[in-house]
Every structure is written in C-alpha cells, then in structure tokens.
Design a protein that fits this description.
The longest helix is centred in the middle third of the chain and has 27 residues. The protein is about 60% helix and about 5% strand. By secondary structure, it is mostly helical. It is globular.
C-alpha cells in the first residue's frame, strides 16, 4: 500500500450470504511493513556454515569470506573451539581407539596444538633447569640458563608448525588428498601431548632413567603418528608408504634425542662443551693476569 502498510483480511465464512455482512472495522488488521524500511537488517541464517565462527558474528570479516592468510581474522576461526572438543581430542590422543582424522570430523583446530606446544616449551624449561640444578648442586653458584627457554621454543614450535606443512606438500605432490594442511598441523600438535608427561618426570639426575622415559614417549608418540598417517601416505602414487613413514619416524626420533640431550642430560655434550669453554676462558684470564703481574701492569 502507498502508506507503508499491508492489510490482512480475516473473513469468517459460515454461509453463502455472510460475505455481504463482513464488518471491515472488526475484521481488518493493519501491520507495519518492513519491505521498504531502511533499518531492516535481518539476513538469512548462515550460522551453520562453520562451527568455528562465533554465533551472532555473521557480519564479521572472518565470516564474510574475504579474510586473507595475513589477517588475524583468518586464523581466529580455528581457535574458536569448545573445551569439550579439545578434551575429547586429547583423550583420543592418549587412548586411541579410532583414527584421529575421524575424531576431528573435518573440523581441525589450532587452539589445542598451540597451547600444547606452549605447555611443552614451559615445562621443558622448568624441568631442564631443575635437572641442571641437581647436576651442579654443591659445586658452584647456580645460574639460570635462559637459553633453554629459547631452545625449547625453537625446537618444539619448529617441529610442530614446520614439519607438517612440508609433509603435507610432499603428500599433495604425490597425489594424496587424505588430509589437508590444518589436519596435519592438528595431528602433530596433539601428538605432542605425551611430551608433557615425559618432561614432568625426566628431570631425575639418573641418566638411564631419563633415557627410559624419553624412549617410552618416543615409542608412544611415534605409534600415534604412524597409525594416523599410514592411510594418508598409502594413498600416494608411491608403491609403498614405508619410505615416507621411515622419514616421519626419523624426524620424530631427532626430536626425542634433542629433548633428551639438551634438557635432561646432566652429562649432556652441549652442556659439557659449554662448561669446558667456560673453564678454558677462565684459564686464559688467569694466564693474562699472571703475565700482567710479571711485567708490572
């Protein structure tokens, strides 16, 4: 209607002659129309398009489909995950009953991998510091080695967020589409969960005991990766996926050895080399002082 109203006519038909006795004052109802209202912002419901977008943010950049790799909104959607989903994935990692890719149900997240890796870094630094303190107790004044923190961050973050993209690129090149990049990152990220337990118990000054703990963690996490990656790698153009699995296990063994040697070895070669260089520096300083005294400086 020209006045911006639409009319609803309710006609009660009881007989053929009742149409002529309709009372328009009682049976006509007028409602405000929103067809031409510029303030009408109602949009179709698209909340089911992605389970990672916060409800009610349909106008946000992340849900508009125009987010780019260099924008925070692109990655924010992969951190929007329920606590119950993260706990379920942690449980599936420690007590695997089904393929982890099936547990993700096509909805990988980066929240779990990031915070698991961060927890491993912090615990490696703390327990590695305790291990060094016990190894040096009573010999000299203990000095905190903050290089352990940067070393742990470089090792864990590098392994978690660099190896999966490389592996995914190789798998894609060989023609397999069994897992996307985010699923690879999620798989490796949750696979680090076992290293939290290993780091908590491997600070003992008993070297052989630490070797046992790290070996058990390596075996458990390697089995987790092999079990979940084999269906993906076996779908490549290679006749056998054993070659790629050997590379995966070899890289994982490198991570385990680095954790053992750099953080939980009182007789660590890296630590011995550092102490040796420090002792040699002190000896050089003593020689320089002696020479200065002899020549009268």
């Amino acid at each position: 209607m020209p006045g911006g109203y639409d009319a609803v006519v309710d006609v009660d038909v009881e007989g053929e002659g009742d149409l002529g006795h309709t009372d328009l004052q009682e049976d006509l109802e007028f409602h405000s129309s929103t067809f031409n209202d510029p303030n009408n912002t109602r949009k179709p419901n698209t909340s089911g398009s992605s389970s990672f977008f916060p409800p009610g943010n349909s106008s946000s950049p992340s849900s508009s489909g125009k987010s780019f790799l260099w924008s925070l909104s692109f990655y924010a959607q992969y951190f929007d995950v329920d606590t119950s989903a993260v706990l379920a994935r942690c449980q599936a990692t420690l007590y695997p009953r089904a393929n982890f890719l099936d547990v993700m149900e096509g909805n990988p997240d980066l929240y779990g991998p990031f915070w698991i890796a961060t927890t491993v870094v912090v615990i490696l630094f703390l327990t590695g510091t305790i291990s060094q303190y016990l190894a040096q107790k009573g010999s000299k004044h203990f000095i905190y080695d903050f290089e352990l923190l940067s070393g742990a961050a470089g090792l864990v973050y590098g392994y978690t967020f660099v190896i999966p993209p490389i592996l995914w690129g190789v798998v894609r090149y060989l023609g397999s589409e069994g897992a996307n990049l985010l699923e690879m990152l999620c798989l490796y990220g949750y696979g680090n969960l076992v290293w939290i337990a290993v780091a908590l118990i491997s600070w003992s000054p008993i070297t052989i005991l630490n070797y046992v703990f790290v070996a058990v963690g390596f075996a458990y996490s390697s089995a987790f990766l092999v079990r979940n990656l084999y269906p993906v790698l076996s779908a490549t153009r290679l006749k056998s996926a054993n070659g790629l699995l050997i590379v995966v296990v070899g890289l994982h063994a490198g991570l385990a050895i680095a954790i053992k040697v750099l953080f939980f070895a009182s007789g660590s070669p890296a630590k011995k080399q550092k102490e040796k260089s420090g002792d040699e520096g002190k000896e050089v300083e003593e020689v320089v002082r002696l020479v200065r005294r002899m020549i009268g400086w």
